[in-house]
Amino acid sequence: MNVTPRRRGIVLAGGSGTRLAPMTVAVSKQLLPIYDKPMIYYPLSVLMLSDIREILIISTPRDLPLYSDLLGDGSTFGIALRYAEQRAPNGLAEAFLIGADFIGGESSALILGDNLFFGQGFADYLVPARDRREGATLFSYPVHDPTRFGVVEFDSRGRALSIEEKPAKPRSNQAVTGLYFYDSQVVDIAREVKPSWRGELEITDVNQRYLAAGRLYVERLGRGFAWLDTGTFSALLDAANFVATLQRRQGLQIACLEEIGFRKGWLTVEDLKRRARELSNSEYGAYLEQLATAGY
Predict the structure, then answer these.
(1) Is 287:275 a contact under the CB 8 Å cutoff?
(2) Are residues 146 and 174 in contact, defined by beta-carbon separation less than 8 angstroms?
(3) Going by C-beta distance under 8 Å and a sequence separation of 6 or more, which residues neighbour residue 144?
(4) Rounded to whole angstroms, how far apart are CA atoms 99 and 7?
């Protein structure tokens, strides 16, 4: 029988957020709002849609108590949350060193705390990555300014040929998004990565190891999908407007963690009602009450 491997999730929500100063002088970027909910709800929703319920949030020593106050142990959403410190922004690959004990030899997924994904059928794109027993799976997205991103090049069959970090002359317009799925070997690979010229442990170096071994897979997101990196003022505003427009027109929430937990069967109607009462003065709470009343 083909058993889906157990997979742990990591949200990397560290960094200093200097591009969003002065908003980030006193608070983590990933605690800022995108329309009606904190930014970190959006990456958490992606892991939950991938059926990942054990999640580690990595942030700075200053900000971790705020995340704990906001999210608690995760039971409000039907998941289990743990927390760990990243004392300095030493690179994305450091997440696997910090989270080595949490991963515990299992498969894992890493998502950056400032990434927003949306698209009809997005959950279906997550299934192959979630179920893959060996190798690494990335998600790429076409952009008009690939020099700002990690870029993946494909051959005529759609297989990854190369990955470059912020190349001066990109070989494609396919940017590597901030969502990564790995097998149980990733911690050992991350331990062998050397700091780059920036002094950071680069996630691209981890991905290149999988590529060299012929075990790197890339899911390409195209038309009909939105991938937003909320690292600048304009990008943050664009993301808020995007979410506001869709939610007002459809009457449905994006990245409502309680709804995802409920639809996954991790929360009961009574759990929803209890949460709705806690947030009863907000439109978000009213939405949860409607879900609980409908019962589906």
Answers:
(1) no
(2) yes
(3) 173
(4) 13
